[in-house]
Amino acid sequence: MTPRLAPAIALLASLLAAIGTALAAAPAPASASIWRVPAPHTAIDPLLHLTEYENRVAFKINQHRKAAGLAKVRYFGSCIDGYAERWSRHLALTGAFEHRDQMKILNGCDLTWVGETLVRGTGITPGDVVKAWLHSPEHRAVIMKPRANRAGIGVRIDPQGRFVGVLNFGDVN
């Protein structure tokens, strides 16, 4: 990371944390919405735009699922995505690196199964993240779970300039 980029990333992380805190205090909507995962936009640098980073991780995961004959996780539900976003913010702000109680997501989003994968590091591309997860048997089991049909991804940058990512998968009957 260049010395000029570090202050910009720190400012971005601070702004995202402030926005996230404000959003976390807002009441949850009465109903959840879902949306399609867009194909990555090649002109945007995912290392500088966290939403693009998340979209590229989702796209890569679906490429691997499709290649394995599994259904794509086409819809990223707002409930499970909210949990991923809030947990990535928590991990980035506290420096912790641990899984949370999955029962909170299971019950909070009315799901029948959930799984979580984490990542933290510097200069890691979305492809690097997915490759690392797929090379770990425990993480691969979550990503390649045939019944997975909902997902949420949260990525933040911690004060040390590291990406902190959370992927939550689940299913709804």
TrEMBL record:
In the UniProt record, the signal sequence range is 1-24
Which UniProt keyword terms apply here? Signal
**Keyword Nucleus attached:** no
InterPro entries to which the protein is assigned, alphabetical = CAP_dom, CAP_sf
Residues annotated as domain SCP = 61-168
Source domain of life is Bacteria
Q: Name one Pfam family in it.
A: CAP
Listed name of the protein: Uncharacterized protein YkwD
The species this protein was found in? Nocardioides ginsengisegetis
